[in-house]
Amino acid sequence: MTKISVQQLLIYPVKGLSSHKCDRVYLKVGHGIPGDRAFALMYKQNATDTSLTTVSWMNKQNFAMQNDWPGLAALNCFYDPDTGTFTVKRKAVELLVADTKTIKGRDQISAFFTGYLAGIYPSQAARHPNRAPLQLVGEFDKTRYPDREAVHISLVSQATINHLSQLAGQPIDVRRFRPNIVVEGVPAWGEFDWVGQEIQLGTARIVVTARINRCLNIDVHPETGERDMRLLSLLQEQFRHTQTGVLAQVISSGSVAIGEELMIMPDVN
């Protein structure tokens, strides 16, 4: 049997912004991966308290995301968990350095992205095309703002991405799909067979719950912010669905590192 192992580990400290590669992550029951989607850029409401630093989970329509604002992908954003410093660059030019642990720093981040959205164009289906002011919310390792209220992580096989690359006639960057875990040793689309199964992942255990239905965000280049490929249409044309990768919930806390093996647990039913 071919060994199935972890090829990449990714988190997204700020929902809708750049990925961050990790050598090891901790998986926590009831939370997912601490630090993943820990912050979000919330559309500010009239009654919103500007000193508020965290909010409860809300539907993704309340936050600025690449699906609505593909130009966000043109920014290279980095969060340092040791210092709480958030840095934004574009084409290697530093645009912002701010401290997420202070009100002043968070206000700087909110103001920067409010101004940035004012200078780019939303997608046709954007939920907030009026460029409402933004407010940074969240706290690293504590809050989390995934698309779904039920906490999850996401996995995809590199072979699936390779197959799509062949169909598209050009290499596809896995970051278009914003996964947490990229695995190797699984045939293309083989991760779909995991739905309903438990998997030992390092010292953690997860249960795969569903395939992931994709949106137009996969058409966006993860560095330029341009819609340069018709991947969503390609999926529909080739497979009669728009799914890639799977969702999973953590059922036993633990850690996993790059190179570690995945073990599909035997079905006891």
Category by helix and strand content: alpha+beta
Number of separate strands? 15
Mean pLDDT: 93
- Rg (C-alpha, Å): 18 Å
Helical residue percent band:
10-25%
Instruction: Indicate the multimeric state.
Output: single chain
Stretches with pLDDT under 50, minimum 5 residues: none
Alpha plus pi helix count: 3
List the secondary-structure elements in sequence, H or E.
Answer: EEEEEEEHEEHEEEHEEE
Q: Describe the biggest sheet?
A: 8 strands, mixed
Q: What would you call the shape?
A: globular
Tell me the fraction of residues in β-strands, as a range: 25-35%
Strand order of the largest sheet: 2-1-10-9-13-12-11-15
Task: Please provide a written account of the structure.
- This protein has helices at residues 103-118, 158-168, 231-239; strands at residues 5-11, 20-21, 24-27, 39-43, 76-80, 85-90, 93-99, 134-138, 153-157, 181-184, 198-201, 204-213, 243-252, 254-257, 262-264.
- With 269 residues, the chain is of the alpha+beta class.
- It has an eight-stranded mixed beta sheet.
- The two termini are 22 Å apart.
- The mean pLDDT is 93.
Concise description?
The protein is α+β, with helices and mostly antiparallel strands and 269 residues long. The protein has helices at 103-118, 158-168, 231-239, and strands spanning 5-11, 20-21, 24-27, 39-43, 76-80, 85-90, 93-99, 134-138, 153-157, 181-184, 198-201, 204-213, 243-252, 254-257, 262-264.
